[in-house]
């Protein structure tokens, strides 16, 4: 699997700042940083034939993405995708515009497709790096674990109700997501300390050796219904 090579600096758009005029607060506890421009071209990374019907199993038991030998479940995929949707919509609102997800980009695909491909790439990179946790003997300190507990509480207190409903992830599962993010970040830091190019090189190698398959459940995640509109600013 090979993604497009364009990689710009990540930007963390705070929903709390964007919607402060209304007092709507979204704390992006995940610390997700989204690449605004990413080439969609992904060789070996695609959906199933479409013959599979959506599962009736719970989101935490339903595989949405096969990242090589690693399964990513639907509730986790929804978390990343809908946080991204809300982040982008909020950013556009701060520019005085509402985001049209069906609009074609210069890449020839819709904004929805482009952002979802970015999210998918971000998920695969995190899973790749996280898989080295035993090799690097990385664990979370008590202080880091306490911060995750705080982030969890803030997520449920401060996240907009509609966004909370769309994501639909349990506290136990979200704790796992936050822990995985924190550990993957620590591993990247250790890799980069030894060689600043090592995280990128590690992920690049992983992509050549693994195939990513997006299940129909991933395809069912859409941005048809906006989370934030201009009305949220007033």
Topology:
Blueprint: H1 15-18, E1 45-47, E2 63-67, E3 70-73, H2 74-94, H3 111-130, H4 142-158, H5 161-167, H6 171-194, H7 198-209, E4 212-214, H8 216-219
Parallel strand pairs: 1-4
Antiparallel strand pairs: 2-3, 2-4
Helix pairs in contact: 2-3, 3-6, 4-6
Describe the structure.
With 234 residues, the protein is α+β, with helices and mostly antiparallel strands. The protein has 8 helices and 4 strands. It has helices at 15-18, 74-94, 111-130, 142-158, 161-167, 171-194, 198-209, 216-219, and strands spanning 45-47, 63-67, 70-73, 212-214. Strands 1-4-2-3 form a 4-stranded mixed beta sheet. A hairpin with a 2-residue loop joins strand 2 (63-67) and strand 3. Helix 2 (74-94) crosses helix 3 (111-130) and helix 4 crosses helix 6 (171-194). The protein is globular and about 50 Å long. The protein starts with 14 loop residues before the first helix and ends in a 15-residue tail after the last helix. Mean pLDDT is 80; it is low at 1-55.
Give a quick summary of the entry:
With 234 residues, the chain is α+β, with helices and mostly antiparallel strands.
Q: Percent of residues in helical segments?
A: 40-55%
What is the typical, i.e. mean, pLDDT? 80
Give me the side-by-side strand order of the main sheet. Answer: 1-4-2-3
For the largest beta-sheet, the strand count, sense and barrel status come to:
4 strands, mixed
Q: Give the SSE order as H and E letters.
A: HEEEHHHHHHEH
Low-confidence residue ranges: 1-55
Q: Measured on Cα atoms, how large is the radius of gyration?
A: 18 Å
Alpha-beta content class: alpha+beta
**What is the strand content?**
5-15%
The tally of helices reads 8
Tell me, what's the shape? Answer: globular
